[in-house]
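hiii, so i know i said id send this last week but things got crazy w the move. better late than never?? heres the sequnce for the chain we talked about at the cafe, plus the structure i predicted for it. fair warning i was half asleep when i ran it
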Amino acid sequence: MKYQKGVYAVEFAIVGGFFLFLLFAIIEVGRLMFTYNVLHEASRRAARIAVVCQIDDTDISNMALFYGANLIPNLSPSNLTISYLDEAGNTATGIDIALVRADISNYQHQFLVPGLARVINSPTFTTFLPRESLGVYHVDDEDPGSGYIDCN
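okay and structure toks below
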């Protein structure tokens, strides 16, 4: 019995280390799911804003990416691409626009499990929506400011 001193500490170190590793891994998977949800929502918001705002509105990216709120690190307007397409999926302009596509791409998620820090490349999140007003509505002849929606 005198050679059994410290056995519980060794057992705790082995089991406790494994338990903490598993706990951090579960938390990290939750972070990854949150990140993917934010990326999906940013794609959806960008498409929705693009179908109701003017095509040349420079603030669409800022609005789509939560007005600069840092919900997830490293998400920037360079990750967002908005395309205006015809019915065949080709790039279109003016009256030929039938669809708006918003893509969130090239986002890298930093995996933070202690001892296993990695960078995960996320998939491209794409949203298609049919054309709506594109920031233009029926002009009222009596109101000189009518005809365009200011999304800012």
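btw The CA atoms of residues 86 and 98 lie 5 Å apart. thought thatd interest u
miss u guys!!
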